[in-house]
Design goal:
By secondary structure, this protein is mainly alpha-helical. It has helices at 3-28, 37-60, 66-83, 88-114, 116-125, 134-154, 158-189. α4 (88-114) runs antiparallel to α7 (158-189). The two termini are 25 Å apart.
Length: 190
């Protein structure tokens, strides 16, 4: 898929989640709180760092057991080919859109309505893409639980939005780097 189409789809998809979240929140009188800016930014960036390092460990250093191997296969066969050619500008747009859209819906509305566990499980389920993605869905559910806990702890959505966007930016930047590294090695070998 062409990078500009991928960005357009991401923005449209995440904007749809924002609209759903805002309408739902208005219909059910659910307040959308941001929480403290200083705490939200600090805790959000720290959490993104921890999640990013954990993700790097799973991709590069964890023992190659069945579940981890599945995550690595998903990364190599699905994520890298789709996101490997995006620009830094695309990374920023996709990351911010996902942080805002998904956090408004999952932590802002679903968690308020159905609780932390249900919102985290739904978050993980919706990130699964078929056979071989169960462990990835579990990893995303854990991340959803962490992001949901941030919303509770900081009394708002700013910390999980920042954590989500910064984590996605780090993950997409790694995918770009790894794609280009492998592509340049392939080119040099020819």
């Amino acid at each position: 898929m062409q990078p500009h189409l991928l960005v357009m789809l991401a923005v449209i998809g995440e904007a749809t989640l924002v609209v759903i979240a805002v309408v739902w929140a208005n219909l059910r009188d659910i307040p959308i709180l941001t929480g403290s800016v200083v705490l939200g930014v600090t805790v959000g960036l720290f959490t993104a760092s921890v999640l990013s390092l954990t993700n790097w460990y799973l991709l590069c250093r964890a023992p190659d057991v069945a579940g981890i191997a599945g995550i690595r296969r998903l990364y190599q066969k699905s994520l890298k080919p789709v996101f490997g050619r995006i620009s830094i500008r695309d990374v920023v747009i996709i990351s911010v859109a996902a942080g805002v859209g998904e956090e408004l819906l999952f932590r802002g509305v679903l968690q308020s309505e159905w609780g932390l566990l249900a919102a985290s499980l739904i978050f993980g389920l919706l990130h699964m893409g078929g056979r071989g993605t169960l462990v990835f869905g579990c990893w995303v559910s854990i991340m959803g639980g962490v992001l949901g806990s941030l919303a509770v702890w900081t009394d708002g959505l700013l910390a999980p939005i920042i954590a989500h966007a910064a984590y996605d930016a780090a993950a997409l930047t790694y995918i770009r780097w790894d794609f280009r590294r492998v592509e340049s090695w392939s080119f040099e070998e020819q």
